[in-house]
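Following the same procedure, sequence and fold were stored together, as reproduced here.

>
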Amino acid sequence: MKERAYEAKKARDGIKIRVKIIGNRIKVRRYDEGEDLSAIIKNLFSRFKEGEVEEVRHIRVTSEMSHIHAAILEDVILAEVSEDIGKGKGFGIHELLDQLGAIAGPLLVSVMITLYGYRIAFLSLLAPAFISMSFVTAAYMLYPRLKSVELSPPKISFRGLGRGFYIYILSMTLLSLGYVHWMNVSYFLKYWNTLTDSEIALAYMVAMLTDAAIAIPIGVLYDKVKFKTLYIAPTSALLATILFIYTPTLGKPIAYAMAGLWGVTMGCFETIMRASIADVLPQEKRALGYGVYGLIYGITWTVGSFIYSYILLVSSIIATLYAIITLVASALLI
């Protein structure tokens, strides 16, 4: 181990780099007269020893932001490449495959661990990884140049988003405030002794299967009637929330029906609500639009979860009124 560390240090000592900052991008390349990589690393660690921890905090935020950037780019690229078949259908196929992978992956690992142990189980994941990379390669060959991700001067401007986009965001804000999070659902189903732990997991599976089942049909419907399909989201969310609030008196079958309706709403969020942004905004504004959508959606759904966690303990009537006000208002703004 020490020999490998020494060899790595020796190789690193011979590397010279030049770092160039262009707007919000950083370009790093080898350069004979550049800075010594070992010196940069030693300087960085010396700052850690002296208690300058801002660098650690910065790295953590950068990692999280990288995931957010990838999600935004995914939506922007998907909106562009699915124009020929219809954006609704494109996002629907994406959500179906996503849910199938979320179900098949854990199932594959579970079966392989049971039959062959952990080592073979993890090695078996090379198969879906290879298939995934093959599709990425094929996608690159089919779409070598994408207008939506071409580099441009780093400039962010909210001009050009339009009144329709802001009304859409307001409607989505009310929807996510009134759409009860599964975190709340699972907790209160247990708190009310409506379902057991295993039954709650089964209910969630019903929700995810419903999400997958409606993804393509609702996407095709969106391509035909466009924004009218968005009414499905607040309608299903309201029905699911009311059934959830009164499951202690309505019983287990209603809990599973609620899970199905909850999955319908989630399917809308992941398909037609994302596809509609591409129809509301011009191509050069889609990345910013998806970023705003993701930010507002995440914040308001979190706030809504805190609100539900309190009012569900206070009064079912208050919770019902809150759901009706937010979700009906969301539908009126569509």
